[in-house]
Inverse folding.
């Protein structure tokens, strides 16, 4: 009986590993950030400013399931959400692969910096869809945590430092966005809840563990707060081609 149970467990582990490899292969084939700017092949004629990806409109699964072992009380319960098409920066502000993310900025400052570029802060639903893609991924690159894929705590739980955007090129979402897990946590436009007027920031940071760097995870701060590991990236509304 023990032998049969061991064989069953081995088959299950092999199947899970095969599924993980297929998943990573699919994510690896997503558009790279090198294709920045111009008209998106999925945009049906709409365009985004240079350096931004066009995320198509439609539904996705926002939040996390109550039976997810990493689900916590701050997260939204899993539900289908419809999001209009939008544009989003490939990198954390200042949206340059050779720069470290801008941090120690309040929500108000982040909002103004985006406005100065003709953009805006992303809504939480937009940010999460850009991170998960359409397959409800736990992390931007797949469902299994890889401590070396993104700039998060390492496998031993040691904090890392903020890094240039190009330092973790495989930390890429299905839409080709870089560092949506780890590096700097990112302010969004959304309030935390009807009773808590703090603003939501997403993605975890270089000093955060596996559960805190998932796409569904959300944390709140007062909009006036500034922290060394909290930054942002900008969104914008797409423009219809003439």
């Amino acid at each position: 009986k023990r032998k049969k149970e061991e064989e069953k467990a081995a088959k299950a582990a092999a199947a899970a590993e095969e599924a993980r490899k297929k998943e990573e292969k699919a994510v690896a084939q997503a558009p790279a950030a090198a294709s920045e700017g111009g008209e998106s092949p999925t945009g049906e004629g709409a365009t985004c400013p240079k350096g931004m990806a066009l995320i198509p409109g439609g539904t996705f699964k926002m939040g996390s399931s109550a039976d997810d072992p990493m689900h916590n009380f701050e997260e939204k319960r899993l539900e289908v959400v419809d999001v209009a098409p939008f544009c989003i920066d490939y990198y954390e502000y200042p949206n340059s692969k050779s720069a470290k993310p801008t941090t120690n900025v309040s929500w108000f400052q982040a909002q103004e910096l985006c406005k100065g570029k003709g953009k805006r802060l992303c809504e939480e639903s937009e940010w999460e869809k850009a991170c998960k893609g359409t397959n409800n991924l736990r992390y931007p690159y797949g469902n299994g945590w890889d401590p070396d894929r993104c700039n998060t705590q390492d496998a031993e739980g040691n904090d890392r430092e903020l890094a240039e955007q190009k330092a973790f090129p495989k930390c890429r979402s299905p839409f080709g966005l870089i560092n949506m897990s780890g590096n700097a946590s990112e302010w969004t436009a959304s309030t935390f809840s009807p009773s808590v007027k703090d603003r939501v920031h997403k993605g975890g940071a270089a000093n955060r563990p596996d559960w805190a760097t998932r796409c569904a995870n959300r944390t709140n701060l007062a909009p006036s707060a500034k922290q060394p590991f909290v930054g942002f990236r900008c969104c914008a509304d797409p423009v219809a081609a003439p």
Observations:
- The chain has three helices and twelve strands.
- Residues 154 and 172 are 18 Å apart (CA to CA).
- The helical segments are 2-28, 107-116, 124-132.
- Residues 2-28 form the longest helix (27 residues).
